[in-house]
Structure prediction request, 233 residues.
Amino acid sequence: MKISVAYDFVPKQRSLHTSLVMDHFGVAFDQERHVIAEGLALDVSPGQVVLFSGPSGSGKSSLLRAAAAELRQAGQALLDVEGLTWPQRPLVDALDVPVREGLNLLSACGLGEAQILLRTPAELSEGQRYRFKLALGMSRLLSAGGGGWLMADEFTAALDRVLAQVVAYNVQRLARQHGVGLLLATTHEDIRLDLHPDLVVRCDGHGPARLEPGSAPAARAGRRPIHFFPLAG
Prediction:
């Protein structure tokens, strides 16, 4: 696929204040467009992990949405975790897969404790609800026959950073196991090692986005998944 994203510097509605800002920062009314990407070729395949990385405001979310639109236009199933809705049932009953598989998904996302499994999504904290949405999105793709793409902007941003690394590792492992692609954007570099992306699109906000190689297959081996179960005693 090829994606292009650019924005005009000139405001859509001119006013005294916008003119003052433009004059102060030396922005001319004929200023060229700010190009985030122009015909950026992404060679992606189902089941891969694609990561858009860069600081806030660098354009990574715009590129993420552009890539998602291309995948949908190509007829591929794609779920955005932020657009998911769910029934107000206990977590153990809320996923769209058999209970054993659902427990595995919830545990991999750090929701394996009994006191959490028996709660409804409305009773969860923000971080817990985010992790539940990851498990829910994965369950819906699996219930539809597997494959497809799970999209998440600001991936793991709401989580404690140690927990974020563990969840990143577990989610990418489950996704690869079931042939589900991950389309992710983040400002955090600390999860990259555990996420093992196949392709990284780097945005720095000062020029067009560039591609970086992902992890070699050999780098993904040698670590076991971490599951969250309550300790005895």
